[in-house]
Amino acid sequence: MIAVSILISENRSLSGELSIANKYVQNYFKTHKLPVATNENQEYFYQLITESGLNINNKNYAYSPSEQQEELIVASYNLSLQGTYLNFLRYLNSLNSRIMLYKIDSINLKVDSFSAIKIQIELKTLYEAN
Prior knowledge:
- By secondary structure, the chain is of the alpha+beta class.
- Helices cover about 35% and strands about 35% of the residues.
- The protein is built from three helices and four strands, in the order ααββαββ.
- A four-stranded antiparallel β-sheet has the order 1-2-4-3.
- About 10% of the residues are buried.
C-alpha cells in the first residue's frame, strides 16, 4: 500500500505538492493494477465497514467513467455509518491497508450517545474498466 502525504511548507506551493503526489501515484500504477469493478469487490468494500464494527445506516454509490483515463472507473460512495470512534479508526485503517487509493471528500462526525457516533462520509476510489 502506498501513502501519499501532502505537506505545505513556506517554500512550496500546494500545486507543486499535488504535482509531486500525482507523479508518485502515476508511477505506482505503472507496476500495480487496480481491481476490476465487480460485485465481489463492491461487497468486500462494505464488508470492511462491518468488520470494523460499524453499522451501515444508508449507502449510496455511483460508477462513472474517469474523465482523465478512459480505462478507469470512478466509484463514488456516500455512506451513513454508526459506531464508536475506535470502530471508525479501524475502518480508516482497513482502507489504508488495501491496494486501493481512496479520496475522502468529506467526513462529518456527530455524537449520538455516550459511546456512539454517527458518521457521514463521502469518498471516491478507482477501478479498472472491464
